[in-house]
Amino acid sequence: KNIRRSIVVLVCIGLISRLRQMIKLTTSERKPKDVKSGSRQKAQLDRQFFENMRRLVGIAIPGLLSKEFGMLVAHTVLLIFRTFLSVVVATLDGQIVSSLVRLQGREFLVGIAKWMGMAVPATLTNSLLGYVQTMLAIRFRQNLTEHVHAKYLANNTYYAVGNLDDRIKNADQLIAVDVAKFASSLAEIYSNLAKPTLDAFVYNVQLARSLGVESLFGIMVIIQASMGMLRVLTPPFGQLVAQEQRLEGDFYFAHSRLIENAEEIALYRGHEAEKRTISRRYMRLVRHVNRVFRLNVFYGMLEDFVVKYFWGAAGLVACAAPVFAERLPGAQRAVAAVQGASTFGDRTRDFITNRRLLLSGSDALGRMMYSYREIVELAGFAERVTELLTVLDDVNSGNYVKARVGKSAEKSLEADSGPDIISQRGQVIESADDVEFIKVPIVSPNGDVLVEQLSFHVTPGRHLLIVGPNGCGKSSMFRILGGLWPVYGGTLRKPSMSQIFYIPQRPYLPIGTLRDQIIYPDNASDMAQKGIVDAELLDILRVMQLETIVEREGGWDAVKPWRDALSGGDKQRIAMARLFYHRPQYAIMDECTSTVSMDVEKIMYTHATKLGITLLTVSHRQSLWQYHNYILQYDGQGGYMFSKLDPNRRIALMEEKQQIEQELALIRDMEARLGELESQSV
User: Fold this and answer.
1) Count of CB atoms within 10 A of residue 202's CB?
2) How far is CA 270 from the centre of its chain?
3) CA-based torsion, 611, 615, 621, 627: positive or negative
4) Helix pair 179-211, 2-22: axis angle to 10 deg
5) 101 C-beta neighbours (distance < 10 Å), count
6) Type and span of the H or E element at 247
7) Per-residue pLDDT, 140
8) Contacts 24+ apart (CB under 8 A), 627-630
């Protein structure tokens, strides 16, 4: 018995070893043709895969006392119970057939009654297994999504991922789709691995008792040889899945970009160009999916042949061995039993039971083989979700990877170009009430230096007007001041972000009620804590000559697609009302009055100064000069000028400059005419 048990253990260890070898793809076998230095091939079942899984499973299952771990234990108990039910059903199946061939009606009916009785716990167990697996997938996704949201929606990371880093182009798809697929795949893979492994072990023990260890050993040799062949012929499903997800993301991103820029594209009549772009990305996806399907046809045919037919034939031969091959060493015990008190019914019962166990064992091994593809698909999802978490961690730490373009790319290739300014960081100091740039370089995320060193100082009441040509660094300075871009050098003193409010040319209108449009990003609870009521919001709207909007739109609690429901002027006045509600120390006004009349513009600026809000304005409107007393003027060549602003004197100088330019143009025309007359008189 000890020798027999040792052989069974060795057979099981050999089977596990073979399965382990199947999921261990060496780098040389899956070596990519073109890999950038320092990058890692995607979706390999190697050490990195297990590190990814350890990290993600640690998030999905927070601890041993968590609800998820309890559900996993319950799932395991149900799997064990179902396996032992399968053994009992196999034995009962043999007894029913044996009573049938013996023409024992009473025993046959008793067997049928037991069979029906087994159906109750069996069906209940199967239903509970499906329910627990689904709940596990939901809990895994919830934990992973909450973990990702905590990183993605913190410290402006959602902005930096798309604007300061190039590694992820479709974070929305990763969060909404890939995390869900990984959670579902993780929940399925446990059941698809644990159940077949347990089944294979239990069925092998039962078969060793019935057929003999030698016959079982022969079957295992055949199985391991065929599994080795399948390992060699298995396509790189992990890489294929990861590539498919990337192509899906590119296709999704193309449609998102079309929706985001629909108006501009329509005005340019660019639908054909966009159609070509989207079609190219879609055809790349289709070609890849077709390739995967073709590989699946070949591999599925080979796998079905080996698992269902080749292994089944080997099992039938093993079942028949005790009856037809009496001289085989492994059949001596079975033959002795047949010669002693064997009947035709006994042989039928043993054959049916063994055949049922062998088929179940073959099915368990087949499911383990099928799970290999599921494992490599899981590796693809794990790779993408882990990459997302890695990028979020890097961005939260201020580490960005951004491609260089133009002059920045040329400079980065120079050997003596000095330290990379993108990798440097300046100092940010939170001040009480002033804004000061001290030798701060204005640098775009791709490395273009717009201004080498910017220095100016603004205190409360010193309203600053910023002017200059396009691309000179006006908006870039505001992004640095707002904390969207890092400070690449020097020192920046500024109040807390709660005291700096930004109003863009196209205001953002969130999903929610009309009240939410005024108090954003506050909610009703925050508004109540501040002691502000709807009547005060109406007073703010009355200042902006917008009080009729409440009744017109259906009250404060009306919910509409506000982006489409309001006109451009209404949107900009809503944005100013939002500023008056929050009353920060500083307001960044970025061409925020472009669609309102000058009368409303005057109301906006005079009321803002009355509330004690210091204005930092980007605008080319001369009508706004009177509301500012300092000017920061860029020349577009990397230089700037910061000085006091005398609106009347500046307007007079501008008018005088225009008059002189007109007179000079007239003189040039007169000189040209004089030259023509002189040439005609000669």
Assistant:
1) 19
2) 30
3) positive
4) 150
5) 16
6) helix 237-260
7) 93
8) 627/463, 628/463, 628/464, 628/465, 629/462, 629/463, 630/458, 630/462, 630/463, 630/464, 630/465
pTM of the model: 0.69
DSSP letter string, 618-649: E---GGGGGG-SEEEEE-SSS-EEEEE--HHH
> Who's near 359: CB < 8 A, 6+ residues apart?
312, 315
Separation CA 305–CA 366 (nearest Å): 11
What pLDDT was estimated at residue 34? 40
By the 10 Å C-beta count (0-12 exposed, 13-18 middle, 19+ buried), 173 is classed as: buried
Concatenated DSSP letters for 381-401?
A: HHHHHHHHHHHHHHHHTT---
CA–CA dist 164, 203 (Å, integer): 57
* Furthest CA-CA distance within the chain: 142
The β-bridge partners of 587 are 501, 615
From first CA to last CA, the distance across the chain in angstroms is 130
C-alpha atoms less than 13 angstroms from C-alpha of 17 in its C-beta half-sphere: 10
What is the spatial distance between Cα 343 and Cα 349, in angstroms, rounded to a whole number?
10
What phi-psi label fits residue 588: left (phi over 0), alpha (psi between -120 and 50 degrees) or beta? beta
Q: How far from chain centre, in Å, is Cα 468?
A: 39
Q: What angle do CA 158, 161, 162 make, to 5 degrees?
A: 95
Closest CA to 632 of 650, 615, 645, 613: 645
Q: State both tokens at 589.
A: 């006004």
Q: Which H or E element spans position 206?
A: helix 179-211
Which pair of tokens denotes residue 536? 């005060």
Instruction: Tokens for 287, please give them.
Output: 């070609």
Confidence (pLDDT) at 349 = 59
Place of tokens 């644990």: 194
pLDDT confidence of residue 36: 38
In angstroms, rounded to a whole number, what is the distance separating the alpha carbons of residues 518 and 541?
A: 9
∠ Cα 592 593 599 (to 5°): 155
Q: Regarding beta strands 449-458 and 500-503, do their DSSP bridges make them parallel or antiparallel, or are they unpaired?
A: unpaired
Q: Where are the beta strands (DSSP E) in 540-659?
A: 586-590, 614-618, 630-634, 640-644
Which residues, in sequence order, are CB contacts of 585 under 8 Å at separation 6+? 433, 460, 495, 499, 500, 612, 613, 614
Phi first, then psi, for residue 41 (nearest 5°) are -60, 145
Task: Please name every residue paired with 641 in a beta bridge, in sequence order, or none if there are none.
Answer: 633
pLDDT score at 221: 66
Fill in the amino acid letter for 257: R
User: Phi and psi for 587 in degrees, rounded to 5?
Assistant: -130, 125
Tens digit of pLDDT for each residue in 47-56? 888 888 899 9
Token pair belonging to 362: 């073959």
Q: How many residues does the chain have?
A: 682
Q: Left if phi > 0, otherwise alpha if psi is -120 to 50, otherwise beta: which for 99?
A: alpha
Segments of the chain with pLDDT less than 50: 1, 3, 19, 22-42, 325-328, 330-331, 334-335, 337-342, 413, 415-416
Residue with tokens 């004690």: 612
**Interior/surface letters 209-231, b for 16+ CB within 10 angstroms, e for the rest:** ebbbbbbbbbbbebbbebbeebb
Residue whose pair of structure tokens reads 């796998």 in the numeric block: 303
Tokens of 307: 């698992």
Cα–Cα distances in Å, from 593 out to 80, 344, 468, 623, 662?
70, 98, 18, 11, 30
Tokens 């930092």 appear where?
A: 616
Residue whose C-alpha is closest to residue 405's, from 345, 446, 368? 446
Measure CA 579 to chain center: 34
